[in-house]
Amino acid sequence: MIKQWDTTEKALVVSLPVLIIVGLLVPDWIQFFLQVSMASGLVALGVMIQARAGLVSFGQGLYFCIGGYAAGMAGHFWGISDAFVLLLLGVIVTLVIATLLGFLMSRYREIFFAMLSLALSMILYGILVKAEVLGSTDGFNLPRTTFFGWKPEGDAWNTATFIFTCVPTIVIAVLLNRYLRSPMGYIGEAIRENEIRLEYLGTSVKRAVHIKYVIAATVSGAGGVLAAIAVGHVDPEMTYWTTSGQFVFIVLLSGTGNIVAPLIGTFLLEILRIYAVEFSPNTWQMILGTVMLLIILFLPKGLWSLINYYKEKRKS
Amino acid sequence: MLTAVAIILDGLSFSAWLFLASAGLTLIYGVMRILNIAHGGFYAFGAYTSAMFVGWYSTTDGHPALVYLFIFLAALVVGISLGLLIERGFLRFMYKSDEVLMVLVTYAMFLILEDATKLIWGVDPYFAFEPYAYLGLVEIFGLPYQIYDLALIALAVICGFLLWWGMNKTRTGKLLLVVIEDREISSGLGINVAFIFTITFIIGATLAALGGAVTAPKISVNPGLGVEVIVMAFAVVVIGGLGSIGGAMLGSIIVGFARAASVHLLPEVELFAIYGVMALVLAIKPYGLFAQVEGRKI
After folding, report:
1. pLDDT of residue B195
2. For residue B171, is it within any domain?
3. Chain B within 8 Å of A140 (Cβ-Cβ)?
4. DSSP state string for A143-212
5. Phi, psi of B29 (to 5 degrees)
6. CB of B119 less than 8 A from some CB of A
7. Does A125 map to a domain?
8. Which of A211, A251, B267, B297 is least buried, going by the fewest C-beta atoms within 10 A?
């Protein structure tokens, strides 16, 4: 286990109180916006840690949706409204499902991995759209969340859920950073470079991929729960291919250089989306696609690589 | 008995549709090693263009049978123009990048194409049922069946035959097989690989557009019909083995009949039937039935 805290982790810990204070000072809609970006930022983190191993998940929305629906169904059908229980439940459900599907997925790499993850997420979409008990395409609402029996109203509820989103997000980001710095995390990068050599060194690549897949899924599931709590509503759109595509887009845009990058990337994308949708609602995907092509062509390592580039430049 | 006939006929017609929708995908992958997600975009463009052409034609007082020409025309127009534009305009600059990155590139193009259909044709559905209704019904073992659907089965068989004939009996086709075998050596032997790539991409795009064009009369043409196709076509192609035309044929027959059987016997599990078959095949043969063994680099 690594004992030292690196710069990113320190920055994340410091940013937690700052984030909460800023969140409380800004107008409600920005606060909501921050909250939603953090929730979907977690899914982007899930895509990112897989991208470190060269695995592109085109269907991360699957776990975003499973987490959201697990929390939603527990709230809707069993009347569980405690945020902590919902989060735990969502995480456990995604953990179990991802562990099972991981046996299939860990056999594949590259395009097979990408397309099978897409297929899995679209299967869930197909099932949810047909399920009338779950409101088909409209989805359903969650009861207002409570915190250990405390039932805040109005502004207090907004603040409480906001803080409830900030803390897990930062904790997960720190833990993921730890994971990426651990031997298991470095194996991920080695997988991308050369699997066979890794096997010669005595590691099970399949197991490493399986673990990575489950971690990514669980984090995304937590993101799904937090998003469901923030919005108070879940619908099948969460597992639609465009949603998953946006997470891939975020990772492509921000790069895999640092754990903070996808979180900031999500926030930027959400801002961009608000204006783009207002400006011309039918060209949003076109903008996404065009930016994606430009990034692939001119900035293959994402925006974060610019920071490293300037650091190097200053050194020399 | 009636159900059995229905399952067989529907199975054949699903298979035909699946083959038309997936043949181009597997062809492009086989030759160029590009999993072309924009395939779904070509399909959607084909469907819209065909619906538009049929709409135009039915306002004139031409002979109703000629409308089928316009469906093929739509596929050709879309396939050649979009295929040329994307292959010559973008993809050829990126052939050196790896397969996953190419998936992202074609995915980005798919996003652009999706919105392009919305910008060109709007978000309201298009209907072009005239060619479907014109052929009427025929009774097969007591089951009335659309002749149009039977014609699609014939079309899929013809396309499959033409692909086989083109690849095995023509000069360009033989060169294509050589390029599939080894790109570098064939280029060293003096084969114009860039030209082969362009041809392949156009044929693949035209096949996708044709799939959309012939399906348009059967459905209401809506935004978002491309993605369903790409996911379904991928399932088919994976069952057969990526890059194998024969595999795509077998895959579409398996998936087509699985879907038809589940639609008639257990409609709730329709989606499961398709992907269940896929999961079963992959559990036994991880890279599909006709996949070729590939060496791993050390």
Report:
1. 87
2. yes
3. no
4. PPPBBTTB---HHHHHHHHHHHHHHHHHHHHHHHHHHHHSHHHHHHHHHHH-HHHHHHTT--HHHHHHHH
5. -65, -45
6. yes
7. yes
8. B297
Closest among A246, A268, A258, A67 to A174, alpha carbons compared: A258
How far apart (Å, rounded) are the C-alpha atoms in residues B76 and B1?
A: 41
Mean pLDDT throughout A69-77?
87
Length of chain A, in residues: 316
Nearest to B271 among A54, A123, A300 (CB): A123
CA distance B110 to B116: 10
On whether residue B292 sits in a domain, the answer given is: no
Q: Which two tokens stand for residue B192?
A: 């114009």
CB contact under 8 A, B109 and A289: yes
> How many domains does chain A fold into?
1
Q: Which two tokens stand for residue B162?
A: 């033409």
Min distance B206 CA to chain A CA atoms (Å): 23
Residue of B nearest to A198 (CA): B298
Write the CATH number for B30: 1.10.3470
> CA of B107, closest CA in chain A: separation in Å?
8
**Chain A: closest CA distance from residue B34 (Å):** 9
ipTM of the complex: 0.80
- A280/B contact by beta carbon, under 8 A: no
**Predicted TM-score (pTM) of this structure:** 0.84
Domain range for B22 is: 2-284
Q: Establish if A46 belongs to a structural domain.
A: yes
- Which of these, B4, B57, B18, B33, lies nearest to B200 by C-alpha position? B33
Q: How is residue B216 annotated by DSSP?
A: G
Domain that holds residue A214: 7-240
Residue B283 pLDDT > 80: no
Q: How many contacts (CB atoms, under 8 Å) link A and B?
A: 101
Q: Is A197 exposed, middle or buried (0-12, 13-18, 19+ CB in 10 A)?
A: exposed
Residue A311, in any domain of the structure: no
Is the CB of A232 inside 8 Å of chain B's CB atoms? no
Question: Hey, is the C-beta of A237 within 8 angstroms of any chain B C-beta?
Answer: no
pLDDT of A134 reads 78
Residue A2 lies in a domain: no
Asked if the Cβ–Cβ distance from A122 to B231 is below 8 Å, we say yes
Residue A282: closest C-alpha in chain B: B115
Instruction: Write the DSSP symbol of residue A54.
Output: T
Calculate how close chain A gets to B70, using CA atoms only, in Å: 29
Q: Is the pLDDT of residue B296 over 70?
A: no
Using the predicted structure, report yes or no on whether residue A217 has a pLDDT greater than 90: yes
Residues from chain B contacting residue A194 (CB–CB below 8 Å): 297-298
**What letters, b where the CB count within 10 A reaches 16 and e where it falls short, cover B220-252?**
ebebebbbbbbbbbbbbbbbbbbbbbebbbbbb
Over residues A213-224, mean pLDDT: 93
Kindly report the CA angle at A196 between B34 and B244, in degrees rounded to 5? 30
Per-position DSSP letters for A103-141, written without gaps between them: HHHTT--HHHHHHHHHHHHHHHHHHHHH-TTTTGGG-EE
Interface contact B238-A112, CB threshold 8 A? yes
The candidate with the shortest Cα–Cα distance to A127, out of A236, A238, A233, A234, is A236
**Per residue in B157-190, pLDDT tens?**
999 899 889 888 888 888 888 888 888 888 888 8
Domain annotation covers residue B296: no
User: How many structural domains is chain B composed of?
Assistant: 1
